[in-house]
Specification:
The protein has a domain at about 110-245: Tetratricopeptide repeat domain (Serine Threonine Protein Phosphatase 5, Tetratricopeptide repeat). It has helices at about 10-20, 25-40, 45-55, 60-70, 75-90, 95-105, 110-125, 125-140, 145-155, 160-175, 180-205. The protein is about 65% helix and about 0% strand.
């Protein structure tokens, strides 16, 4: 049985995909625009138009393209996630958090959406909300080192040393052979020391032994977990922006 013929919009889109794969972004943009014009409901054309603009650093046109994609396909959670990334690049953290939260509501089984939301809340200073988001990510994917360490980081920031130590201990016990196990154990030891010091201070205050002395808990900045920049462009970037097609960085050719 012969395959159905491609529509005009799909043919144009596929030409744009070829240019995109070659890094010819200007040509890709023109073809994705024409594909979207040829079929007003072709949401993927808008999505990849947004991606092409984003790769050129043209954030406002990229956001506009993704918004048109969302208008057509309001359940297309990848577009929400990537709009959140673009708002984050522009420094519009409140907007980024709002859009990342929408992505988590549409696709609550995807941990990296909660991670991105947590990173954004952390930078806003909404630590309790960041902790909730990182906990969701870590629960959905207990094997991910970044999810566990960022959860511990935000707990550390709130001086919840016991909770942070428990987070790192849980990860270390589940993955003792992890390639970053020595780092995990070092952080765990530091957090346990801080938790013990915190308990000592609390007990002293309860028994009235502190008097008017001020007790400082030594926080070793060199041992703290690190909140990495979400928009690092290195291959191992922690900010897990998702291309609109799962598992692919390039747009696929489409069939009708």
């Amino acid at each position: 049985m012969a395959a159905p013929p491609e529509s005009a919009a799909v043919k144009i889109y596929n030409q744009g995909a070829e240019h995109f794969k070659k890094g010819e972004l200007d040509q890709a943009i023109e073809f994705f625009k024409k594909a979207a014009e040829a079929d007003k409901d072709f949401y993927r054309a808008w999505a990849y138009l947004g991606m092409a603009y984003a790769q050129k650093g043209q954030l406002d046109p990229a956001i506009e393209a993704y918004r048109k994609c969302i208008d057509i396909a309001p359940q297309y959670h990848k577009a929400f996630n990537n709009v959140g990334e673009l708002y984050r690049r522009k420094g519009l953290l409140d907007y980024a958090a709002m859009v990342f939260k929408m992505a988590t509501e549409i696709a609550p089984s995807l941990p990296h959406y909660f991670y991105n939301l947590g990173i954004t809340y952390f930078e806003i200073g909404m630590y309790a909300q960041a902790e909730d988001a990182f906990a969701q990510a870590a629960n959905l994917d207990p094997k991910d080192f970044e999810y566990a360490t960022e959860l511990a980081q935000v707990q550390f920031t709130q001086k919840k040393y016991d909770a942070a130590a428990e987070t790192m201990a849980r990860f270390n016990d589940a993955h003792p052979e992890h390639d970053r196990a020595p780092e995990t154990r070092a952080r765990l030891a530091m957090l346990r020391r801080l938790a013990e010091a915190q308990k000592a201070v609390s007990n002293a205050m309860d028994t009235g032994k502190m008097g008017l002395r001020k007790v400082e808990i030594d926080e070793d900045e060199n041992s703290q977990t690190k909140v990495v920049e979400p928009l690092d462009d290195t291959p191992a970037q922690p900010f897990k922006a998702v291309p609109p097609q799962v598992g692919q960085d390039d747009p696929p050719k489409l069939e009708d």
